[in-house]
Amino acid sequence: MKRVLVLAALTIGALTMRPAPAFADLTGFLGFSSTPESRSAKGVALGVSLIIVGFEFEYSKISEDQLKGAPGLTTGSGNILFMTPTSKLQIYGTTGGGVFHETYRTVGTTQLATNIGGGAKIGFAGPIRLRLDYRIFHLNGLPVEKRVQRFYAGLAISF
Questions:
Q1: Region of residue 126 (left: phi > 0; alpha: psi -120 to 50; beta: else)
Q2: Nearest residue to 156 via CA among 55, 26, 35
Q3: Domain definitions of the chain by residue range
Q4: What pLDDT band is residue 151 in, cutting at 50, 70 and 90?
Q5: 68 burial via Cβ count (<10 Å: 0-12, 13-18, 19+)
Q6: Cα-Cα-Cα-Cα dihedral of 120, 99, 137, 91, to 10°?
Q7: What integer pLDDT is reported at residue 7 of this predicted model?
Q8: Which 8-state DSSP code applies to residue 15?
Q9: Nearest-angstrom CA–CA distance, 60 and 100
């Protein structure tokens, strides 16, 4: 009888407990890539954060500069983030993969890419946070540049 009561209490407790809420955020960003020459980058990221783990989808476009011999790069990637469970300053590391399209003059290539990086989300005002991010992309296939670095700053709104 004691076992049945304990089991019933645990079942009722499990059914009435709520999971920790998931928070989503949308980030618009501007930045630059220094590989092989400095040029502008822009993009958007949409993510969901649990307590320590988060997931995001990111789209980014780095402009081409033919005079400097720097190809354009468009990426779309899914990433996993591991972050500190704080609210005002959240530091994270990230890794992920997806596809890229590199253009240089009249030649283009599309292939798979992986990325690794990290950054911080800094509380600014209410649901708005400043986001700083650094990534290294590894491009498969035969791109002009195999490894591309990108840094950006953006505004994230949590909802």
A1: left
A2: 26
A3: 20-158
A4: very high
A5: exposed
A6: 10
A7: 72
A8: H
A9: 9
H helix runs in the chain, sequence order: 2-16
Question: What's at 70, amino acid-wise?
Answer: A
Compute and round to an integer the Cα radius of gyration of the chain.
20
DSSP code of 19?
A: P
Which is more confidently placed, 11 or 129?
Answer: 129
Q: Which fold has domain 20-158?
A: Porin (2.40.160)
Token output for 97 = 């993969």
Convert the pLDDT of each residue in 90-104 to its tens digit: 999 999 999 999 999
Place of tokens 């959240």: 90
Q: Check residue 8 and give its pLDDT.
A: 72
pLDDT beyond 60 at 16:
no
Separation between Cα atoms, residue 148 and residue 114, nearest integer Å: 11
pLDDT at 15 over 90: no
Q: Where are the beta strands (DSSP E) in the chain?
A: 23-33, 39-49, 53-62, 72-83, 89-104, 107-125, 128-139, 147-158
pTM for this model (two decimals)? 0.84
